[in-house]
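Lab meeting notes turned into a lecture example. A postdoc, R.K., suggested we walk through two folding results consecutively so the class can see how the record format repeats. The first protein's sequence and structure tokens come next.
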Amino acid sequence: MKAVFLGAVTEEEAAAWLAATPQTESSPLQQQQQQQQQQQQQCGASAFCCRSTKPVKPHELQQQQQQQQQQQQQQQKHEGLRQSCGLQQQQQQQQQHQQQQQQLLQQQLQQQQQQQQQQQERVLEFKKTIIQKKTNMERDFLQRQQIVEEALGSV
């Protein structure tokens, strides 16, 4: 349903009428028309009037549209940069986490190597002790055997 109104309508009246009108899904063409109407309202022209209180020149409208497009592009660019910075921060955090994990693994490896070295040293000391005791026992046995032989030889 389309209505044509040839009188002047204030922005408040137009907004009230628009709010009272049931909203339906609009096609891209309708959305573009709505945007143009909103732009015209912002420039002083009413969307429901055949004549405006302030005429909008085509080149002014084109300039405004270009400015809006530039603003949207800048916003998209800024959003892209913000997301890019967020990705960089996330990557840096991941790298730091990986470095910390590597350092932790290196520390654990060093600890294991130290423990193994200490254990090998203890085993070596134990072997030396066993060999020394064996040598002492053999020497004691030989001394006793020699004493026994001397005692038997003197009899």
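The second example is placed directly after the first for contrast:
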Amino acid sequence: MCAQKSIDISAKLKILEEVETGTFSKTKITERYKIAKSTLSTIIKYKEKIDAAVAAGSFGSMRHIRKASHKDIENELLAWFKRARNSNVSISGPLMKEKAKEVSVSIGIDNFQSSDGWLWRFQKRYKISSHVVSGETNKVNENDITEWLKYFYGIRRSYDEKDIFKIYIQS
């Protein structure tokens, strides 16, 4: 047995399921997962917290359930982020940190530090990736499609049917 072994949330759920169903004795469970009996007792003790955390969001690969210290800032920042992404706006890390500072000031929290570590945990907590929104991932404007089709059909009418061929795009 390791001196200290950190178990991810999905394994804790499996352990709790085995304890509840009685599939294995507690001793067998500690042997199977190579954990101390006190660790098993702690997992059982915090069953409600583990279940609540999993119901609130996916914590499968995380090892600890840590709540945000400034949840109100994160909620407002997440709402802003979703609005910006729905408008196909690329958002960089420094921009998110700056917006978090603005939100903290508007809420009245003066001691908030939007560090790189905070940003990393925020992005991990809400599964936000920092890739550029570009190319075919952007939505196409429906008005542009309609205008182009009108233009295309206007050009097409000027040709005979025998002069029109199919073109296949290869990528």
